[in-house]
Amino acid sequence: MNLILLTKSTTPIIGWIASLFGYVMEFIYNITNAVFGIENIGLAIIVFTILINVAMIPLLLKQQKSMKINNLIQPEIRAIQNKYKGKNDQRSQIRMQAETQAVYDKYGASMTGGCLTSLISLPIMLGIYRIVLNMPAYIGSFKVYFTNVTSMIQQQPDYVAKLADLASANAISGDLTQTNILVDLLFKFDGSEWGQLAEIFPSIAGVISENAQRISDVLMFGPINLMEAPGFRLSWALLIPILAGLTQWLSTKLMNTATRRKSASGKEEDPMAASMNTMNIMFPLMSVFFCFTFPCYIGIYWVANSASRIPIQLLVNKRVEKENVDDIIRQNIEKKNKKRAKKGLPPLSEKTVEKNIEDLERKLQVQGSSSSSATSRYATSSLRAKADAGKQVNNTEYYNSRAARPGSMAAKANMVKDYNEKNKK
Questions:
Q1: Which segments of the chain have a pLDDT < 70?
Q2: How big is the CA angle at 236 (ends 234 and 241), to the nearest 5 degrees?
Q3: Range of 284's domain?
């Protein structure tokens, strides 16, 4: 079977998105042709990609806000994990889960918030990528040059057998009596293969040559033939993999810069930072490699996507930096409480967290002592009080202090300290 079919995708969601965006792509192609007299696939891809990235700014802004809040959450989550490190009993695991959820509730965040944004953007990006791979299927004014040829070929005697070798060489194994499969085949042709096609069907050589020239003109982006892979030979096409790597590296770097947190020593606080830095290097290198081996029209899309994200990312970064983190937290909590109200649930509070713990323990028939309940209350009450005030708290120190033995002098001192701080307000 062929790896890439250039007929429309029928995959649910991705296929629907591709069809919708296909109309936009065709509109851009027709407008640039009608207004500017430029009939060019490369230009259409660039304009289309820029417009899609601009339309996705609200999603990118939401993602950056989520990452900013996540940087505040992670130290507190690590503190809870350290608190329960080595405690594998059921009761400890339940309380660790509840206290972890309490931290997310304090910031109005969700454990899957960042992932959800990525999951939403993934089918959009796959739909766009599908269009780039299947341009004749989605751009009718471009496809017509192929159907002009296929309609003539289908009138020739024994044309399927005559095209067998060309189909095999281009990994096309579908039914060549179908127009779309023939278009799949022709779209993969290079200059020499169009010549072979004219030799196979000399009676329609004129039609083949005329349309092949029109297709070639549409697929030329300056001195670069978008249907050819740059390879490792010296040519203008080498600019594509180089630009793909540089723009993706810069775009990714800007995305992470907005949310990166460092300690006083200048080192990354997040232990995942090293892994992220490695991926930030690996992905651009992978882009460079793929753009050397894939047709240039795919590389043009990658370059346009990363390059257009750079100014957008700079604007988003400035916007996120100006926003007060307390305001973001307050907005998150309000949204979360509205969702809870629609479900008939009470607003998030210390009692909500305690009830969740009790319900979990009741289901698993785990009995908690009164001293453990007191510890849990103090582990969540300060979190909730400060969340309601919309204030930022460093709970790494907080949770470490709550690790004191229940009933000890340290625990009582913490109780007095919380009482005094509360009454000062």
A1: 1-7, 113-118, 257-276, 349-357, 359-361, 363-425
A2: 90
A3: 229-323
- Total domain count for the chain? 1
Is 287 among the domain residues?
A: yes
pLDDT tens track for 147-197: 999 999 999 999 999 999 999 998 888 889 999 899 989 998 988 899 999
Q: Considering the domain boundaries, does residue 395 fall inside one?
A: no
- pTM summary value: 0.72
**Does residue 319 belong to any structural domain of this protein?**
yes
Judge whether 150 lies within some domain: no
Q: Measured at the alpha carbon of residue 262, what is the angle toward residues 260 and 264, in degrees to the nearest 5? A: 160
Per-residue pLDDT of 287-308, as tens digits, reads: 899 899 888 988 999 999 999 9
CB 65 within 8 A of CB 328: yes
